[in-house]
């Protein structure tokens, strides 16, 4: 890997580690209205990101046509608000590991879908790496009690995780990581408020207590602001296929941080699963091939979208 792809890999890895930590923070928000919490999270993130959107932000937004605005709305609805709603709904009748296992399959889906949308065949190295990542995520989390509804909502969570990457590809270039993160957070805040009124009525928002405030601040300032920008910067450099490989680090980070708040433990299964995830990332990103060739870059020919994204 060259310097650009190395930075992209590190940024994607950092973003996924932060998101994994957010699962632990979610355990501290069990009694807080879901939609209200999402509104506060994304609303605060929007306010923090807006000054960082970069020069010419309004001009770039005015150049977007209706189709791209619709894509941004779908990205927020499916990949952010919908994803979290699906996880919450799945955990009502299934153990948390069940949606986690389905979300861990996202690298496999993205490794197939993105090349097909681009008119090319999936790359074997990325696909093999994605399969290893999915197996590793399953090993970290195991399988738990569930029913048909739990599986159905877990599939919806998988769709949301895939949509968060795939729907962003065409709008990442014109907006850039910071402005894209800013816009989708603003849209997600509005969508969360609308969902809260429809689902919870007048009780959709209340003042959080001290613990809930800390968890919401962590999710807004660190997971959303830092995590989203790093994620899209990573996608910009290495493409959606390779960036999504690092989503296997989400359950690993969740398993590592859960003992800190007493909601889980880290044992042999988590260690083996973590090793499989790391191996999958190494295979899919080309790191293993690089070392097999004596440290020389693998020299993979980039697709046109990846070349154009690296110029940003």
Oligomer: single chain
Q: Helical element count?
A: 14
Distance between the termini: 18 Å
Give the biggest sheet.
Answer: none
Helix content: over 70%
Strand content: under 5%
SSE string, helices as H and strands as E: HHHHHHHHHHHHHH
The value of Rg in angstroms is 19 Å
Mean pLDDT: 82
Name the structural class.
mainly alpha
Low-confidence stretches: 295-312
Name the overall outline: globular
Task: Give a verbal description of the structure.
It comes from Streptomyces lancefieldiae. It holds the Pfam family EamA. This protein has 312 residues and is mainly alpha-helical. It is built from 14 helices and no strands. The longest helix is centred in the last third of the chain and has 36 residues, at 210-245. Mean pLDDT is 82; it is low at 295-312.
């Amino acid at each position: 890997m060259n310097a650009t792809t190395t930075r992209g890999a590190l940024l994607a890895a950092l973003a996924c580690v932060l998101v994994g930590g957010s699962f632990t923070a979610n355990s501290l928000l069990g009694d807080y209205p879901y939609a209200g919490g999402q509104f506060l999270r994304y609303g605060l993130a929007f306010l923090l990101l807006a000054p960082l959107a970069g020069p010419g932000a309004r001009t770039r937004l005015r150049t977007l046509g209706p189709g791209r605005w619709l894509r941004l709305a779908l990205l927020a609805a499916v990949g952010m608000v919908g994803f979290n709603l699906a996880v919450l709904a799945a955990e009502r009748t299934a153990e948390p590991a069940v949606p986690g296992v389905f979300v861990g399959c996202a690298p496999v889906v993205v490794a197939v879908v993105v090349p097909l949308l681009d008119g090319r065949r999936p790359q074997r190295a990325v696909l093999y790496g994605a399969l290893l990542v999915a197996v590793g995520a399953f090993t970290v989390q195991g399988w738990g009690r569930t029913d048909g509804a739990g599986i159905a909502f877990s599939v919806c969570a998988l769709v949301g995780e895939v949509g968060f990457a795939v729907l962003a590809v065409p709008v990442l270039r014109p907006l850039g990581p910071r402005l894209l993160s800013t816009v989708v957070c603003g849209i997600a805040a509005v969508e969360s408020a609308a969902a809260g009124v429809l689902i919870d009525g007048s009780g959709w928002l209340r003042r959080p207590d001290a613990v809930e405030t800390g968890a919401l601040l962590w999710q807004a300032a660190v997971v959303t602001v830092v995590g989203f920008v790093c994620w899209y910067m990573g996608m910009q450099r290495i493409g959606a296929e390779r960036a999504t490989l690092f989503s296997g680090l989400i359950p690993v980070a969740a398993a590592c941080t859960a003992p800190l708040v007493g909601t889980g433990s880290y044992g042999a299964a988590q260690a083996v699963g973590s090793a499989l995830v790391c191996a999958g990332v190494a295979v899919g990103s080309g790191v293993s091939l690089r070392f097999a060739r004596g440290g020389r870059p693998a020299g993979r020919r980039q697709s046109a979208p990846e070349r154009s994204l690296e110029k940003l």
